[in-house]
Amino acid sequence: MKNINPTKTKYWNKLKKHFIQIKDIHIKDFFKKDLDRFKNFSLNFKNLILLDYSKNRINKKTISYLINLAKECHLKSSIQSMFNGENINVTENQPVLHTLLRNFYKKNFFINGENITLKIRSVLNKIKSISNKIINKKWKGYTGKYIKDIVNIGIGGSDLGPLMVTESLKPYKNHLNIHFISNIDGTQVSEILKKINLESTIFLVASKTFTTQETITNAKTVRDYFFKNKKFLKSDISKHFIALSTNEIEVKKFGIPKKNFLPLWNWVGGRYSLWSAIGLSISLSIGYKNFLLLLKGARAMDKHFINSPLKKNIPVILSLLSIWYSNFFNSETETILVYDQYMHKFSDYLQQLNMESNGKQIDRNKNFVTYQTGPIIWGEIGTNSQHSFYQLMHQGTKLIPSDFIIPIKTHNNINNHHIKLMSHFFAQTQALAFGKSLKDLKIDNLKKINQKIENKINDNLIYKVCLGNQPTNSILINKITPYTLGSLIALYEHKIFTQGIILNIFSFDQWGVELGKNVAKNILSIIKKNNKCTIYDSSTNGLINFYKKNK
Ligand code: F6P
Q1: Residues 517 and 493 in one domain
Q2: Residue 369 banded pLDDT, cuts 50, 70, 90
Q3: How confident is the model at residue 104 (pLDDT cuts 50, 70, 90)?
């Protein structure tokens, strides 16, 4: 991996000049100039995923310059470095190999002299046998009842990935009820405990480190609940707890036996871990066969990422567009707008994946960056958000690049719902790009007067003007299946990787998160004591003391 300051490259500087030339060109004028724009700016992945990026503020030159920027930053060799298992997570001195988890046909892959593919396959076998046993009602709880509920206890990457996938793939779900506890706020665990019967529930303690305060606190609370029943013996823990972690020692201390321990490895980043043992809740929810299809779909996208030329490479194109907007147009955010109810957690998931990966300010040469790194990611499902924040996108003052995502085929083909949903999807990207001018509004107004629909010239038409020119990517997915979802997730993983490489930052650590954790630890020891807190700034002291007085 080469550590190149992107702003010092030839093509960054070319892009700067190019930006001045095209920044005021309206998307509609790009379309007028290039009648084949859709063909020229769209990419097709196996007829399963179509990316149309023609409604962006770009022309062919923009893309060519951005591709050259990627080349100057040695993107291709960095991709190789990741897949080859080089220590590209430099600050944690380890490789980044979540992609290996979905390449399980690979015969050998050695890390520190150890053939890791054997270990990966052995965990997959364990996922398979546990899933089959529980789904087929062969796993019994401590009172002999078969399992009906699964609760995943985890946070961050040990929560959001499995949560998003199990929600997105609900049509493939079996009889098991899947729940998630992440928050340390006792409300979440209390509410879940009200819904389930402990005797027929398995808790998956999902924590890469097995030291995360939120997860271990929640897991201990649940364990205490079991022990409130005199009939529950220590040995019964194995009937109700499974650990998904790297930390065998802590798992053992918790009381979970080895047979219920599914390992993952340090080279799997937390937010990239749904493909690992952390994905057990997915396999339980949709069955092992479907879990494998999810992995296979991701593998297919990995191959596309490795083998496609940069200009035909979907993750690369999305990443370059993101850099174009945040660094040249100074946009601050990106929205993810999914037109599929099942995928209601997708933008939350991408928020962590992107912001925890690329929310960095020190470059790979240990300097503060002088340019923008990761964007703010946010979003919601369509069409609900059309009746909420789209107003600002249509008429506000902010530039908001968006990814619009929709399946062509729905799992719930009832009446004419889906065709209407599709029409909203197409309409929004059209309206955001092309807007509505005062001239067109006046023509419409006159037409309506002629047709006697309206009776006078509307002198408030200015308020209806939508300038358009909001950039969007449209992503059409054949159908949300385990396979296509796997591909879509991997697509975004690689988009984020590409951004990190070009922006010269380390995408696979998260030191900022650690600061908050440490401060919270210190504050916890202070608020347990009765004396007045004086060691922090006046605001923090004041808040802590107010809490102590009023608790
Ligand atoms: O939020 C920071 C983080 O380290 C995430 O990267 C990770 O997914 C999460 O905490 C949970 O960590 P663990 O799986 O070790 O409990």
Answers
A1: no
A2: very high
A3: confident
